[in-house]
């Protein structure tokens, strides 16, 4: 958007037709840049300090409620996902109960919001991220919050946790896109604690990571592909062994 307005304002003396052709050509380019910014923002949302190769803060996040499970775990309670959830619904989603419950609302209310307004939220006293990340990081986070949130209920049945995908198609996608790193059984790399089959116990986390990649790892982000590919892959993952 910013990039687009900028490009459009640099065409003062060109004819209308040329301008139209140019903006047609420029639009996909800025869309492509936006997609990679959103994916990086999604990884920052997951574990920002790993993405920027910083140490996690030592003191707990000021907004994390005392008495809740991760109150003394700064490494966890500074992650956006810890308060707002993998499904982005906070207390109204998967974190409505269980050890990750904080009672904090989701970020879904700011989907589509102006990125400047989102950055202001992240730098306010409640969030206290000012000085912890740079301008590019905040832009990526804001692009993710504004443009990168999925309505996961469309793809995952909340009650059964089943992805609404085709496992047969998903197997072909998985074996060609993922298996070189994760093995056909989803039990690689060796240092990965849970198999991908086991991780389907939290399908929202899996979907977030397939779309945006894994912080500080060589994992691609499938955000640019049709959502159904991700959902088909997840349907296949659910059939893989839960134990190594
Ligand atoms: C320790 C808990 C905590 C963490 C971590 C946290 N937030 Fe929040 N966030 C909150 C609380 C509490 C609110 C509600 C504040 C309010 O209403 O004044 C909020 C509100 C928001 C909102 C506004 C939602 C709305 O509809 O008004 C956005 C957007 C947001 N957070 C994004 C993020 C992002 C991005 C990160 C990570 C960089 C993050 N938050 C990390 C606690 C947290
Ligand atoms: C280039 C290698 C590579 C490719 C390709 C790749 N991944 Fe990954 N992925 C990784 C690495 C490395 C990790 C981090 C593993 C760990 O936690 O030790 C990871 C982590 C994950 C995680 C989160 C695991 C966790 O512990 O939180 C999921 C889910 C995942 N990958 C799914 C996939 C799927 C599905 C595909 C195919 C669409 C895929 N990956 C493609 C390298 C890759």
Quick tags:
244 residues; mainly alpha; Cytochrome Bc1 Complex, Chain D, domain 2; 2 domains; 11 helices; binds heme C
Give a summary of the structure in a few sentences.
The chain folds into 2 domains: 35-149, no CATH class; 153-237, Orthogonal Bundle (Cytochrome Bc1 Complex, Chain D, domain 2). Helix content is 47%, strand content 0%. It is built from 11 helices and no strands.
Given as residue ranges, the uncertain stretches (5+ residues, pLDDT < 50) are 1-12
Bound molecules: heme C
Number of domains: 2
Query: What is the overall silhouette?
Result: globular
Q: How many β-strands, per DSSP?
A: 0
Strand-pairing-aware structural class: mainly alpha
Mean pLDDT: 91
> How helix-rich are the residues, as a percent range?
40-55%
Number of helices: 11
H and E string: HHHHHHHHHHH
Q: Tell me the radius of gyration.
A: 20 Å
Distance between the termini: 46 Å
Strand content: under 5%
Main sheet summary: none
């Amino acid at each position: 958007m910013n990039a687009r307005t900028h490009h459009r304002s640099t065409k003062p003396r060109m004819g209308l037709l040329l301008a139209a052709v140019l903006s047609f050509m420029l639009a996909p380019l800025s869309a492509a840049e936006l997609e990679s910014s959103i994916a990086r923002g999604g990884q920052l949302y997951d574990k920002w300090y790993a993405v920027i190769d910083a140490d996690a803060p030592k003191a707990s996040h000021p907004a994390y409620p005392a008495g809740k499970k991760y109150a003394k775990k700064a490494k966890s309670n500074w992650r956006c996902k810890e308060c707002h959830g993998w499904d982005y619904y906070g207390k109204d989603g998967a974190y409505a109960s269980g050890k990750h419950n904080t009672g904090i609302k989701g970020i879904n209310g700011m989907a589509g919001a102006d990125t400047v307004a989102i950055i202001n939220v992240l730098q306010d006293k409640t969030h206290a991220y000012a000085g912890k990340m740079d301008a590019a990081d905040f832009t990526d986070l804001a692009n993710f919050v504004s443009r990168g949130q999925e309505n996961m209920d469309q793809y995952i049945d909340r009650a059964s946790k089943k992805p609404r995908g085709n496992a047969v198609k998903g197997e072909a996608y998985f074996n060609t896109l993922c298996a070189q790193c994760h093995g056909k059984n989803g039990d690689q790399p060796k240092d990965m604690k849970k198999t991908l089959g086991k991780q389907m116990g939290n399908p929202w986390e899996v979907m977030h990571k397939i779309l945006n990649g894994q912080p500080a790892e060589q994992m691609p982000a499938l955000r640019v592909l049709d959502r159904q590919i991700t959902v088909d892959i997840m349907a296949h993952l659910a059939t893989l062994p839960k134990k190594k």
